């Protein structure tokens, strides 16, 4: 059995209908009073689809008899009922001066505001769910209970609002980088939830956080309600941190080793970027001396443009301080220089206590130590970009003569895409010079600005001497038996690519010494060696001659005189006689340049003699000729088949060295020679003065001076 409850309000009739769900149709439904101030009474009936008028009575909850019956009328109608209550309504803050509560709830819902169970105001939300409830002023810390009831009678959960003192705004913590000028920032940026969205409110700084050191500080903002002249001061936590900062530390007075800030150069980005310089951290006398032991420059900054020649221009900003100078004086003098993106800042410090970008305030974790001396950074929209680092090294290169090199062969580049070795040499090496020569190479570094910086690096190229000396040969002609000349006489135009001073740096010696023992054209080997040990062997021809040697141009012809007997020629052809004559005359020929034996090219320019006599033969080789004198003697031996009559000579007394003795046979032409004057041994020689002739063959060989008669004293 379903049951519906309602609350009886006094003795008033309730004329609005009670509604229940259609699912209860044809079911027994009980309507019961749930007001505890009245005696419980209920009425049960069968629900149907039509509207029913239910009349029932209730008595006040009292034990007294004769209580008056109160009759209530209820119309019960079955519908699709809304049984979902609205969400708890939102509510604005309520201050001791507030006379309204505003918020949002379900459209058309009835809002009830109660304090300690007493309703102090109601309102109905508009079509957008907005509501405003007028309430009397409440005391501080009073608790307002707010509910929303929809048209179906569903009631939301409660929303409680405690009355608080009014807050004009809420602190909005801020974080800035070193050197920020807070006075240029609207103080509203430090607040949120400003009363009246700032309308008719005055907002101003009371104190501003110092931005010269990293850490957490505070900024005080005064907010005044101009309608009441009531003011509130709001303290806003303000954090100062490193930005794009070059931080430098000093050792402190008396060689103390704390990370004492002396300079923190921070980029402030924007349309017109600029730099600020602050101590950064305040550990150990930040505003004392930079370094009590340095009377010379301890820290400096320069700002420079990059020229069209890709070099650093003259500094347009230059600040420095000796170690004995105070930090405060240096920072005051530094100011706030304006810069352009693409400018270069030079940082100098003689100790490795300079750090790059965003270290922590205490430990400097993550900071990068810079090298002692000069360090350079490009100022970019993304911060500092280190350039011109000392991380490029040169290489000395050694090559052999004839090899080639590139500019990049002389440079070791780090893994940095912005670095490139220019193709052209600043000073090209001398590849033709053996030994060491200076090389200059350009390295370009691409900048974020689109420009680039160039640097020149110097290295050394050593060309190893691997080429042997050269020389032209100078063939020599020497006399047979002559002494051997120096090896250098066989050469001319001696040259070495490395040793200009040939006399002192080139050695020339025989490998196979020449010989002058016999005539001819031969080859001697001569070694030419330089200081590097490179050696050339030259083959040089040389000619050995005697009085029977003729030389013309590059032809040398040797010959001699010949004596032969007719018997040497017997039975030989003309060619064989010519060969015999060449052999006996020792005919030889050579090419004096190549040393080739040209004997077989020698020609006989004269007829070949075949009979006894004296001849002059001419031999020729190329452009040279030689004359050979040939004597052929008749040494024929005659045999007689019939001896002539005895030759009888008359007898005479030899009275002088010569005498003529008549003979009896006058047909013989005989001459007698007396040789007694030659010494003790003498002879009388009878000589046939005319040739003997073959009586039967007149063409036969004749003899002359071949028939001798000897008479000796022994």
UniProtKB/TrEMBL annotation:
The lineage of its organism: Bacteria, Bacillati, Bacillota, Bacilli, Bacillales. InterPro entries: Big_6, Ig-like_fold. This is Putative secreted protein. Residues 86-164 form the Bacterial Ig domain. Coiled coil: none annotated. Pfam families: Big_6.
């Amino acid at each position: 059995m379903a049951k519906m409850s309602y609350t009886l309000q006094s003795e008033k009739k309730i004329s609005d209908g009670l509604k229940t769900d259609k699912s209860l149709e044809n079911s027994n439904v009980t309507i019961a009073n749930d007001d505890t101030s009245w005696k419980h009474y209920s009425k049960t009936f069968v629900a149907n689809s039509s509207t029913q008028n239910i009349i029932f009575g209730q008595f006040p909850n009292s034990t007294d008899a004769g209580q008056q019956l109160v009759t209530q009328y209820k119309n019960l109608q079955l519908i699709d009922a809304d049984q979902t209550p609205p969400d708890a309504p939102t509510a604005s803050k309520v201050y001791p001066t507030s006379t309204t509560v505003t918020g949002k709830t379900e459209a058309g819902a009835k809002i009830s505001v109660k304090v300690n169970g007493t309703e102090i105001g109601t309102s109905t939300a508009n079509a957008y769910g907005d509501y405003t409830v007028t309430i009397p002023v409440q005391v501080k810390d009073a608790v307002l209970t707010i509910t929303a009831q929809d048209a179906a009678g569903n009631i939301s959960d409660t929303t409680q609002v405690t009355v608080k003192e009014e807050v004009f705004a809420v602190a909005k913590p801020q974080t800035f980088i070193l050197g920020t000028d807070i006075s240029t920032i609207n103080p509203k940026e430090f607040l949120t939830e400003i009363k009246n969205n700032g309308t008719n409110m005055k907002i101003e700084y009371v104190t501003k956080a110092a931005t010269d050191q990293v850490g957490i500080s505070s900024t005080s903002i005064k907010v005044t309600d101009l309608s009441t002249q009531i003011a509130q001061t709001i303290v806003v936590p303000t954090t100062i941190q490193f930005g794009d900062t070059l931080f430098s530390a000093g050792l402190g007075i008396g060689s103390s080793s704390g990370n004492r800030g002396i300079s923190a150069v921070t980029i402030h980005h924007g349309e017109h970027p600029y730099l600020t310089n602050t101590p950064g951290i305040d550990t150990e006398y930040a505003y004392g001396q930079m370094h009590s032991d340095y009377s010379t420059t301890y820290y400096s900054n320069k700002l420079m443009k990059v020229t069209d020649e890709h070099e650093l221009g003259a500094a347009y900003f230059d600040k420095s301080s000796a170690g004995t100078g105070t930090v405060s004086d240096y920072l005051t003098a530094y100011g706030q220089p304006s810069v352009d993106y693409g400018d270069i800042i030079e940082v100098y410090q003689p100790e490795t206590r300079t750090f790059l970008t965003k270290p922590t305030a205490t430990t400097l974790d993550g900071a990068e130590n810079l090298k002692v001396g000069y360090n350079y950074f490009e100022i970019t929209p993304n911060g500092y970009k280190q350039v011109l680092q000392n991380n490029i090294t040169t290489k000395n290169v050694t090559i052999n003569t004839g090899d080639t090199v590139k500019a990049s062969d002389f440079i070791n580049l780090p893994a940095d895409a912005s670095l490139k070795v220019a193709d052209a040499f600043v000073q090209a090496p001398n590849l033709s010079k053996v030994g060491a020569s200076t090389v200059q190479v350009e390295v370009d570094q691409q900048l974020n600005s689109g420009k680039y910086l160039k640097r020149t690096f110097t290295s050394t190229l050593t060309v190893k001497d691997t080429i042997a000396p050269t020389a032209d040969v100078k063939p020599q002609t020497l006399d047979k038996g002559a002494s051997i000349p120096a090896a250098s006489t066989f050469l001319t135009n001696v040259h070495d690519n490395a040793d200009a001073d040939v006399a002192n740096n080139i050695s020339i010696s025989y490998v196979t010494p020449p010989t002058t023992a016999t005539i001819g054209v031969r080859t001697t080997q001569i070694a030419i060696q330089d200081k590097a040990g490179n050696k050339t062997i030259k083959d040089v021809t040389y000619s050995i001659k005697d009085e029977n040697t003729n030389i013309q141009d590059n032809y040398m012809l040797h010959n001699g005189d010949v004596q032969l007997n007719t018997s040497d020629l017997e039975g030989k052809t003309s060619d064989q006689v010519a060969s015999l004559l060449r052999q006996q005359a020792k005919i030889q020929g050579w090419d004096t340049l190549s040393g080739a034996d040209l004997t077989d090219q020698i020609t006989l320019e004269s007829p070949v003699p075949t009979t006894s006599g004296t001849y002059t033969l001419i031999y020729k080789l190329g452009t040279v000729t030689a004359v050979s004198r040939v004597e052929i003697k008749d040494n024929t031996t005659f045999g007689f088949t019939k001896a002539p009559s005895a030759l009888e000579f008359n007898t005479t007394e030899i009275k002088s060295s010569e005498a003529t003795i008549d003979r009896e046979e006058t047909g013989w032409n005989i001459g007698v020679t007396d040789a007694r004057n030659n010494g003790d041994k003498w002879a009388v020689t009878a000589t046939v003065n005319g040739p003997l002739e073959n009586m039967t063959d007149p063409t036969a060989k004749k003899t002359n001076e071949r028939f001798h008669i000897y008479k000796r004293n022994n």
